[in-house]
């Protein structure tokens, strides 16, 4: 793989389900890597097409290019690309080398990706995406959490990790709503197990999941009032006054975090309502609550929710918060109970 082929794959891998013109690809390569020329890009794409890595389709007078996820050769090429990215990252950052060594001892049997590595390293922070094999038990997940906290203290580095099993990973990947996983995937470098990571993406595609990564990162603290009101109503928490006008569909996990960050007491008391009425990924909720410094607030709400709703994922989330030593911020249970009854979210009534 030469340098231009690497740049092409690095650019396409940031949204592997996307089809784009060669001109648009060259512009994106220039934006990411500094230089790109149409003629050279065109020649390199034809080499990659012969290898079965990319798919070129005529569209009028131009050609559209996309990764060929039908071909297993593509997985090898993307894995090689990530290994090169990893080498570049580790050779320039001693703190990332120590993190890699810690994650590799003992050797990982699951893909571990580093998100937005350069930016986070400057903040002495690492953001990880860990894909947990299906056979790992709850005890194994707890051991993983304990190990990450020990690593965080030993390396003197903040580590925010999103650990997802296959079901949770695919569910978030397939969701039509904007969510943090699809945003993270556009900025990932597979630190461990790149072949397993890209095989997982290919397998999801083979099962009919549309592969779409989102380039822009959502800041829940800056979520617009319009979008927040719309999504709260969408999840069953309609507010008094005129009905919320349609906005961008945003995942329930981001909505919960946005409500907590904005601090509106009535809406905060409505969080158990929307969590009782709608499925949520509690691993993602915990990840976001740590990232934005509101674990204690979330813990108090989940503790109250557990009095109205049963579920293994909810119980596991509370156990993980307890194991992390999070100090619970108490909520007004009387107000929450009244809210649950008002919105018919209390299954006992």
Shape: globular
Main sheet: strands, sense, barrel: 4 strands, mixed
| Structural class label | alpha+beta
Number of domains: 3
Main β-sheet, spatial strand arrangement: 6-5-4-7
- The run of helices and strands is HEHHEEHHEHEHEHHEHHHHHHHHH
- Work out the radius of gyration: 22 Å
Number of strands: 7
Q: Which residues form runs of ≥5 with pLDDT under 50?
A: none
| Beta-strand residue percentage | 5-15%
In percent, how helical is the residue content?
55-70%
Give the overall average pLDDT: 92
Report how far apart the termini are.
64 Å
Helix count from the secondary structure assignment: 18
Give a short synopsis of this structure.
By secondary structure, this protein is α+β, with helices and mostly antiparallel strands. The protein is built from 18 helices and seven strands.
Can you walk me through this structure?
- The chain has 349 residues and is α+β, with helices and mostly antiparallel strands.
- The protein has three domains: 3-67, Winged helix-like DNA-binding domain superfamily/Winged helix DNA-binding domain (Arc Repressor Mutant, subunit A), CATH 1.10.10; 72-206; 220-342, no CATH class.
- It contains 18 helices and seven strands.
- The chain has helices spanning 3-12, 22-33, 38-50, 72-92, 94-103, 117-122, 138-155, 166-174, 180-185, 194-206, 225-234, 252-262, 265-269, 271-277, 282-291, 295-305, 312-323, 333-342; strands spanning 20-21, 54-59, 62-67, 112-115, 125-132, 158-165, 188-192.
- α4 crosses α5 and α4 (72-92) runs antiparallel to α10 (194-206).
């Amino acid at each position: 793989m030469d340098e231009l082929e690497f740049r092409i794959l690095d650019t396409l891998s940031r949204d592997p389900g996307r089809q784009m013109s060669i001109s648009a690809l060259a512009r994106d390569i220039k934006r990411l890597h500094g230089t790109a020329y149409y003629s050279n890009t065109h020649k390199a794409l034809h080499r990659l097409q012969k290898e079965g890595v990319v798919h070129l389709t005529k569209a009028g007078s131009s050609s559209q290019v996309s990764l060929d996820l039908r071909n297993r050769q593509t997985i090898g090429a993307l894995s090689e690309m990530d290994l090169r990215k990893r080498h570049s990252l580790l050779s320039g950052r001693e703190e990332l080398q120590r993190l890699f060594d810690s994650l590799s001892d003992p050797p990982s049997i699951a893909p571990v990706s580093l998100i937005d590595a350069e930016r986070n390293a400057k903040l002495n922070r690492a953001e990880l995406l860990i894909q947990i094999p299906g056979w790992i038990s709850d005890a194994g997940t707890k051991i993983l959490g304990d190990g990450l906290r020990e690593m965080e203290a030993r390396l003197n580095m903040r580590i925010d990790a999103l650990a997802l099993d296959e079901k949770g990973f695919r569910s978030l990947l397939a969701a039509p709503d904007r969510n943090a996983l699809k945003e993270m995937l556009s900025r990932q470098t597979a630190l461990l197990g790149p072949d397993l990571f890209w095989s997982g993406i290919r397998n999801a595609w083979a099962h009919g999941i549309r592969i779409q990564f989102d380039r822009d990162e959502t800041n829940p603290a800056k979520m617009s009032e319009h979008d927040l009101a719309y999504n709260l109503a969408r999840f069953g928490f309609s507010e008094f006054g005129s009905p919320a006008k349609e906005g961008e569909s945003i995942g329930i996990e981001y909505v919960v975090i946005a409500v907590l960050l904005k601090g509106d007491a009535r809406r905060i008391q409505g969080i158990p309502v929307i969590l009782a009425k709608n499925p949520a990924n509690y691993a993602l909720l915990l990840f976001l609550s740590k990232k934005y410094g509101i674990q204690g607030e979330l813990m108090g709400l989940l503790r109250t929710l557990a009095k109205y709703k049963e579920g293994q994922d909810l119980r596991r989330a509370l156990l993980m918060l307890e194991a992390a030593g999070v100090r619970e911020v108490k909520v007004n249970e009387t107000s929450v109970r009244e809210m649950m009854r008002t919105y018919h979210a209390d299954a006992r009534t």
